[in-house]
Design a protein that fits this description.
mainly beta, four-stranded antiparallel beta sheet
């Protein structure tokens, strides 16, 4: 089991920036991917970004590409989601996840609220 703790959410104006962190502990050797997802009220959960621990390879959907950057600190077992040029439609609860593959995440954090005001 992997424990994940997110931090860094908050309220920001449109065009602003936030950085989310996710610290992993426990059986981290069982996972090679870290991902971020978000869920807005009344909407389905949406993939935001992923990174592979072993190579640093990242992936983003078109909705955030060029605005969000996911990085990792292997020594600290922590990933960082830098979010720039935030828009009101980025408002959601953001969840960190860990998994063995890019498309399978079995461990989830508690979520952190991001609110972007217009």
């Amino acid at each position: 089991q992997v424990q994940l703790v997110e931090s860094g959410g908050g309220l920001v104006q449109s065009g602003g920036s936030l950085r989310l962190s996710c610290a992993a502990s426990g059986r981290t050797s069982s996972t090679d991917y870290m991902g971020w997802f978000r869920q807005a009220p009344g909407k389905e959960r949406e993939f935001v970004a992923s990174i592979r621990w072993s190579t640093g390879t990242t992936s983003y959907p078109i909705s955030v590409k060029g605005r969000f950057t996911l990085s990792r600190d292997n020594a600290q077992n922590t990933v960082y989601l830098q979010m720039n040029s935030l828009k009101p439609e980025d408002t959601a609860i953001y969840y960190c996840a860990a998994g063995a593959t890019r498309f399978s995440y079995g461990n989830w954090g508690q979520g952190t609220q991001v609110t972007v005001s217009s």
